[in-house]
Write a structure and sequence with these properties.
Elements: H1 2-24, H2 37-46, E1 53-55, E2 70-72, E3 74-76, H3 82-90, H4 102-105, E4 106-107, E5 110-111, H5 122-132, E6 136-138
Parallel strand pairs: 1-2, 3-6
Antiparallel strand pairs: 4-5
Bound molecules: heme C (HEC).
């Protein structure tokens, strides 16, 4: 009995410690100040994101010789959150965009997207996210559900 209870105690302590560690790396508390979507669009063009990206429903100037191959915005089945968009920009390889063959968007597991972290100001990042976030439309997934009588 005593062994079981010390084991429970140890396991609980381990679980709590693991929980604390996860907490330390958690995105809890993350919040961006309000950005300016028009400035975000300017940044998008200035940084030449349109070299690789189109935006659904937007007409962007074409860059000579560029063939954009990843579309941003459009229908998604759940909200593209600020957190996901910031991560997609500053840590592109963390999670590759859904719906593309891996060898099109990555090389050796790394995203083909440039890392702008040394060049982009925080304000530019905030404005980019403010510009991109409303481009996504949340739609119901197109699954057929069986309805039980
Ligand atoms: C050299 C090509 C290239 C350039 C330039 C580029 N990207 Fe990307 N981007 C990619 C590729 C490839 C992906 C898909 C793989 C991934 O998720 O990282 C991607 C994915 C993304 C995603 C996530 C899309 C999703 O559906 O999850 C966002 C947001 C994004 N890029 C924003 C930007 C912004 C903003 C810029 C300019 C500052 C930029 N990209 C410049 C290649 C590029």
């Amino acid at each position: 009995m005593k062994i079981i209870s010390s084991l429970t105690l140890i396991l609980t302590a381990v679980a709590l410690l693991a929980g604390c560690d996860r907490d330390r790396m958690s995105e809890r508390g993350f919040a961006l100040p309000e950005g300016n979507p028009a400035a975000g669009r300017e940044t998008f063009l200035y940084m030449q994101c349109n070299q690789c990206h189109t935006i659904e429903g937007e007409t962007l100037p074409q860059l000579a010789g560029a063939e954009p191959f990843v579309e941003l915005g459009g229908p998604v089945t759940r909200v593209k959150s600020y957190g996901e968009l910031v991560t997609a920009i500053i840590n592109p390889s963390h999670k590759l965009a859904d719906g593309y063959p891996e060898d099109l968007v990555s090389e050796d597991g790394e995203s083909k997207m440039y890392v702008y972290n040394g060049y982009m100001t925080v304000q530019e990042l905030i404005d980019l996210v403010a510009y991109l976030q409303p481009q996504y439309d949340v739609v119901m997934p197109a699954f057929k559900y069986r309805v039980y009588p």
